[in-house]
Every structure is written in C-alpha cells, then in structure tokens.
Aminopeptidase N
Amino acid sequence: MAQTLARRAEVSRFGSMTLSTLTSSEAAARSALLEVQRYDIDVDMTGLLEGELWTSVSTITFTCSEPGATTFVDVAMDVHAATLNGEPVDVSAAADGRLPLPALAADNVLVVEASTANTASGEGILRTVDPTDKLVYVWTSLEPDEARRIWACFDQPDLKAPHRFVVTAPSSWVVTSNGAPESVIDADPDVAADAKVWTYPDTPRLSTYVVVVNAGPFHEVRRQHDGYDLGFYCRQSLVPILERDLEELVTLTRQGLAFFGERFAFPFPQARYDQVFVPNLGGAMENWGCVTYGDGQLFRTPPTHAQRAVRGEFIFHEMAHMWFGDLVTMQWWDDLWLNEAFASWAANWGMAGASEFTEQWATFLAVSKRTAYEMDMSPARHPIRSAVPDVSSAMSNFDAITYVKGQSVLHQLVAYIGEDAFVAGLRDYFSRYAYTNTTLDDLMDCYSRASGRDLSSWTKAWLDEAGTDVVSLVDDELVVETTDDQDPRPHRLDIAVFDATGDDLVAVGRSSHEVTGTRTPVDLPAGDLRLVNAGDLTFAAVKPDPTSLRLMLERVQQLDAPLDRALVAATAGQLLLLGDVAPRDVSAALTRALSTETSVSLIEPFLGQALQVADRWAPASESPGLLGALADAASGLVGLPDARQAALRTLAASASTDAHWAVLEEAAAQATDLDLAWRMAVRRSELGDYDADRVARLLESDPDPDAGMRRLAVLAAHPSVEAKEEVWRAFFVDYAVPASRETLVLGSTFWRPGQAELLAPFTHRYLEELHSLKGGLLNQGLTVRAMYPLGAGDASFLAAAQAAAEDPTLFAYARNQLRANSFVLGRILQARQL
C-alpha cells in the first residue's frame, strides 16, 4: 500500500531550531517501508578551523518495499541540493528537520548536500576553543536523533546500516571515527588548502545515533593489548593529566574487554577501541569503537578512590554499550532501558568481578541507588518500560529510573533466577540478535529458556509498573506495602540477624527468602538487629522495626561487611524520604560510622551523605552543630592515607573553628596541587570572606584550562547579590559553564541553604529560565539538575515548581526533573520539622 508519512505538529524543544519529533507510528511505518543498505557520508570540517561551518554530503542507498510510496529523510540543516536516483529533489520543501521525498523506486540512491553553522550549541556537534592555547576541537554526539543535525539520514534506531565516512579536515587535526582509517592523504589543494582526507571503512550495521566523527589537534596514545589496538585522546592542554592516569585507563579497558568478551561469549568484534576525552560534554557517549567522555573525567587533581571508581564505572558502562545498544539495539525508545539499565548493571558487575573495585556493589548502594528511590517515590515515577509516543517524550526517560532502578531490577533478576541462568540468557541473546533490533520480549524469552521459569509476571511487575515497594518485618512476617494499590512485586531478598547483647554485634544467621504477596512468613533465629534486604539484592525501601532502627543507627560501625554498613546508610536515606527519621539522627549515625570506617569504598560516600544531610536536610538551628561534628570526624580521618584527600575536601566544606582551619592550612602548605586551596576559598567565601586578590593568585597559578570555573565556584558561595548574578549570567546568559560533573557541584555551591533569604528571588528565576535553555540533551539536562534549588527553596518556590511541572510549554525532561526534585525538596522541608 502506497502511503505518505504525515508530519506531526508537536515539535522538539531541545535546541534552538523548531524540529518535528519522530513519532513511534511514523517510525514503524518508515521501517516497514524502507531498508537501508548503506550510508556513504563525506564531511568537510575545514570551515571549523577559523569559523563555524560544517558541511556534509550524505549518500543513502536503500530499498522500498512499496515502489511509488513516499516518505521523508531527516535533515535539520541548510539543504543546498538533493537528488533521488539521479533526479533533483525540491529542497525548498525542507522544513522542521525533514525533506519530503518524491515517489520511491524499489532500489534508491539519495544524495543530500547540506551545511550547518550551528556548531557552538552542543546540538549534535560542538566546536570548542581551548582558552589556554586557542586550539579548536570538535566532537559529535548523536543520541537520540541528533544525527540529522549534521548529515541527512533516516534517524531512528531500527533502520541500521553500515556507515562509511570520508572526512576532510585541517592538516593539523587528528580525526577519530568508529574504526581505524583506511588512509590519510593530503587533500587536493584546489578543493581544500592545507587539509587531509581521512577515509574510514564500513562500520558494521549500526543505528544512526552511535556513529561519530571527532577532530582536533588531539594528543593520541596507543597501546596494543590482547589483540586490541587501544587509543586514548585528549586536548593538548590536558596531556599531563592523561599521561598521569594512562596506565589505570589502559588496565580498566583491558579488564573490561576481557571480562565482557568472555562472559557474553562474544568478544568485541573489531581490533580498534578508542576513548576520546573532549571538552564540554556533559557525560559520555557509547559510539561504536570510539567512546567520547567529557574531559572532566581527567581529574585535574589526582583523583580520590571514589572519583576513580566513578570513572571506572563510566569506562565499563560505555564499553558494555558495545553489546547493549550498539551490537543489539532496542527497536524503539520505549525499550531504552535495554540499553541503559543493562549497561549500568554490567558496569558494576564487571567492576566487581574484574577490577580492583571489588566492593563496587557497596559503592553503588552508598552513592547511586538513592537517586532512584527519590524519583521512584515521587510524582515523577514511571515504569522502567512504557509506551513512548515520540522521540521528544523519550528524552524524559534519561533518568534515575531507567538507569539506576533499571540496573537494580536486573540485579534482582540475577538473584531471582541465578547468575548462571542470567549469563546463559545473555549469551543466547547476543548470539541470536547481533546487529539487529530487539524488544523486551526477545530478551525475556532468552532468560526464560535459560532459567526454565515463566518470567511473564515478573516482567510485568518489575518493568511495567512504577513505584517502590516498602518492606517491613512484623511478627516474623515480611509485609509489603505498594504504590497505588498495586499487587506486591516478587522479591528475592536476604535477612541478616545479629545479637546485640554484648559490646559487639554478633552475626547469628543470614537467610534467603522469596517474597510473594502482601505477607510472607519467615523463620528467623533470635536476635536484636534484623537487617532486611541484606546484600541489597532487591529494589525496595525498608522500614526496620524500632529496635533494629535504633541499633543500626547507633552501632552501624560494628557491622563487619561493607555492604551491610552501606545498607544502613541507604536505609537511613530511604527513611528520610519516608519521613520516619530525623536528619539529626542520620547525621549522627554517619558521623559515628566514619569514626571507625576502614573501607576506602565507603569513606567518601559516607562523608558525602553526611555532608548532604547536615547541610541540606537539617534545620537551620541544627545545621552548624552537625556540620561541626562532621568536620571533627573528617579531621580525624586526615591521618589515614586512603582517606586523607576525601577527608580534607569534606573538612574544607564544613570548617567552622580555628582547629578545623589549622588542619586545612597545614595540609594546604604541604599540597602539590591547588584543589584544596580552591575549596578553602569557597568555604571562606560562603562565610563572607571573599578575597579577590587571593582568587586572582589562584587563578594565575592554576594550569587547568577550566580554572575559571573554580573562580565561579568561589563567587557562587558568596552571600551577595552581585556574586550570585555573575554566576547566574555564566549559566543562563553566556552559557559559559562547561558541562561536566563539576556543573552539579557549582549548582549546589550556588544554592547555599543558609542563604535562603538572599536566594529566594533566584529560585523563581530558575523556573523562568527553563523555557529558554540552549544546547544538546546532555548539557541541558545537567543545567536543569544542577540549578534546581534543592535545600534552598522555600514553600513558596515549592508550590511554583510543582505548578511548573504541569506546564506543557516546558520540555518533558525538565517537567520530570521538577517533579522529582520538588518531591525531595518537600521532604526536606518536612524533615526540618522533626
């Protein structure tokens, strides 16, 4: 049946252009109509050395199952010319990111010549000038549908095809793409002066969003290991940082490739594997064989254990995407979790099993899992898997439920069917579906075959229903409370019992239970402290009995297993959200735990959680005292080599006495870097002591190309309208804040809870700014999260934010983040009354 795919009126609000957003029905119709044989894409980057012009010629070879039908190609650029099967196409009809095509033949060749000067906003592409040496770097990042911004394509995940790139770039630049170049030759000087042409072989069949072209005068290091050609790239100003951490990066990469290749029974199928650290990328992107990371992962100061673990998780996560997402790709964005949750789960699984970070599951519980509980308990909750009507709607699902709850649910599935069956299911999945697209049913069928269990009810309960179960142990029964009167989910969990009659906690038993229904009887040995969900095998909030709650908070430091201590801290965080514990009690427990904590995997997470509770959750009358106690505990950790750096950073954020400052001053005098001095300047500024000369000296002596952001952090902390305004302009007017994890730190530094009165007008301005954000998905998302006034907003702002979350003129991601953060802010305001 011949048909024309209708264009939907709803448009994407990501970015400065008005673009149609592809609907699921349009994608399904186009997928049924077309099969793409290949993309041959010529890219000219010579216009980016001194200017902002990117040009491309995209040749698409494809078939049509219904000759005579019409469709459109995605191209959000200035289209100069196009031909279909040698005949001109009317490019004046291009609008809203689409070029209508005339009647198709059975076999077709479409050629589209286009260009864009939108290379400074981070929408699919970003051109960056390093402030220290004025060198230019360019990266592309195409998820979810940004490929259309830099070349013509059928921009949907299930129209996979090989891509072949020919890139013309300035002679001084290095180009990276999805594999090794076939050739690099001088360009014809009549075509492009002082340029080289980089020609790349065909990629495997890939979705349009996981191909890449990066370029610039990158520093390149290559290592040959285990049959792989490993590449590492960074901008020239960060060469010493990359070289400092190179061996660790190489080791993690080797470990990950070996572990995943063996466990999946499917080694990564090409020799070349590059990792490119680029400026101003808010996260990382899993491009096939050429992962890009924001170069904030090249920590300017020698990283702490926790920072190294975070970077390791990034490396393993993006590598796991080579299988989950690149090799096998979801058919449509409603199964985004097939990519992201699996990559997140596999990263922690791989790190715990193959790297030095053997306590990664404890770190995950202590650091990350809280974010999923916050969102899943809030009005922003949504099923892990749900219908996604269009690409724009899909963007709201790039959140803690998809990533963090998703991987927690997979961790539960491992416990539910056993790791051997889980791995066997994965091997079956990759063997059956390599280089194709799948749905949830395809994966669950593999698990059912491997485990011999019918997983249909498990799938529905865990993936198709939103909300967090709350599990309590009452009179030797596990009692499950659900969200919205749902049926309880099936849980496989452990309970650990301890005797507390002596000076130490003594383990008396640990048992496993499958929980079904509202009440499940359990047979436990006698004991005083009963830890429900020991080992953190399931995703559920836990309400301990009163005796267990008291004992876990008072004696957390006596639990032998790091995962048990992490569970106490996590349970305390859940109880804050449930309104069942006061911030002062949680802060005291964490400070007590830190007095004897020896696990390097937990010290920094506990310091961070304790600081957040004392600073953000506690009422103004109690916060200084709790911060002082935390600063005392941090001072006590400074003498431990593995804890020193993290302890000094926490002390710098909470110092309030001469003794605290004396410890910091002594450490700063011994330090070989400027990080601690900057942190001390931030704290002094927060306390009203802003010394412009001191900041100027720090800035002059700091070689970091992004050192200007450290100056902004000092300003952000200062209790003055003038300082706040300058930081505000950097975020929302000049867009001068590089996207990285430090963006979140800068936001929390701006929103000091003790400056609530000063900040009140800014809280409402934040809601106004959400209507006009610029940049790509990753960068916009960072700004939305970083600049929500969590801890600084009052009841008036909370009401306004809750109203804004229902404003249809805001893009879906922002509305969802408003719902989630407003839930947490509401619980903070309530907790301050306890």
